[in-house]
Design goal:
Blueprint: E1 2-4, E2 7-13, E3 19-25, H1 27-37, E4 46-48, E5 54-56, H2 59-70, H3 76-95, H4 101-119, H5 123-130, H6 133-140, H7 144-149, H8 162-174
Antiparallel strand pairs: 1-2, 2-3, 4-5
Helix pairs in contact: 3-4, 4-5
């Protein structure tokens, strides 16, 4: 990983040996990462505890923290699924409605491809694991855009974007 000013660049090999090159611009996060990189050792996510010992942070630690902080059984994968579902929803909104079942299937595949590109994964994995099926079901039924437009926000949606509020409404309807 490289840090240059407020930009972080992650280059890594992911699942199936696929190479990833991801840039992120956030001044505060860049400063934190630079401090972490200054710690001895190879693990990026680490800290020095109160006794002066270096401690690493793994995915299990992150998931344990998420469960503790939320009081729910959330994991990092849940956040990835939320992001994938929002990306699919945005893609379907942009691609627009269709009256034709065949065209709907084509548009759904285009939306999945956009999500797969953003999440650096395959179409099959994104469809199966990272997009809530209600989004594609509602689109195929021809009622997604109408379903998203109904309502003036979702209860308890403070801090959610309009797209996220629309998704919450959709998921509550599909119940």
């Amino acid at each position: 990983m490289e840090v240059s000013g407020s930009t972080l660049r992650f280059q890594f090999r992911g699942k199936s040996g696929k190479s990833h090159d991801v840039a992120l611009s956030d001044r505060r996060l860049a400063r934190i990462v630079q401090r972490c990189q200054a710690l001895p050792g190879e693990d990026l996510f680490q800290y020095v505890d109160d006794e002066g010992n270096r401690q690493t942070i793994g995915s299990g630690d992150v998931n344990d923290y998420l469960r503790q902080a939320s009081g729910q059984d959330f994991t990092a994968k849940d956040f990835r699924t939320w992001a994938g579902t929002i990306l699919a929803l945005a893609a379907l909104r942009e691609l627009g409605p269709t009256e034709d079942e065949r065209e709907a299937k084509t548009i759904v595949l285009k939306a999945i491809d956009r999500v797969a590109e953003q999440l650096n994964n395959t179409r099959a994995v994104c469809r199966k694991y990272y997009v809530h099926p209600a989004v594609f079901e509602t689109y195929a039924a021809g009622s997604l855009l109408e379903s998203l437009a109904n309502g003036n926000g979702a209860g308890g949606s403070k801090g959610l974007s309009e797209e996220e509020q629309a998704l919450v409404r959709l998921l509550v309807k599909k119940g």
